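Board notes (copied after class):
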Amino acid sequence: PIVYAAALANGMSPESIFNDAPREIVFGNHIYRPQNYGGRFSYQQVTLREGVVRSLNVVAVEAALQVGLSKVADIAEKMGLPRPEPYPSMALGAFEATPFEIAQAYSTFANDGVSVAPFGIKSITRDAVTEEIAVAETSVLRPAVAYIVTETLAEAVDRGTATRVRGMGYRGPAAGKTGSSHDAWFVGYTPKLLAVVWVGFDDYNNLGMVGGDAAAPIWTDFIKRALALR
């Protein structure tokens, strides 16, 4: 989604066409062959938007190269992530990030393109005097770009890689993205609440499960209980 946001911010259309097929990328002295999860390709033309909904890695890498890796890295950093090295695999999240950092980054989409530095205390009241805690805000994306990303991630929940959310009975508004490699991720948000779930091993061993199966059910269970309370 961060690649998608960078593409939209730099004039690319959600309907831009890409090939969902294997390819070789020469980068410096190396050859990079991005793979979709499970090595599956449709060998069809797909839109950029569809690439996000279906989590097609080859589309993400090609879009990042067309936009410029440094521009993607700029937006990732402004959204609160560690600045990634400008390699093609960066488009797939091939760098370290904590769930807390991912939460801050995705909150930019949920907050109309404005990144807010996380804070734990909103205000302190002593007698009749209230001290408000200053919040650092940074405008990263145009509201229109954040809106398109959110609408696309809502499709990922309704018919893409995160349909497990609907399968477990959550019917409210939600937007989110799965992540699957050696571990499993799901980050999702409702209009007022965002949560990130990571499932994996500390020693980097392969979990052997995708984000939609391992992380999305935990997110859904938590969101259903949280929204029932408030």
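Comment from the instructor: The longest helix spans residues 143-159. The two ends are 28 Å apart (CA to CA).
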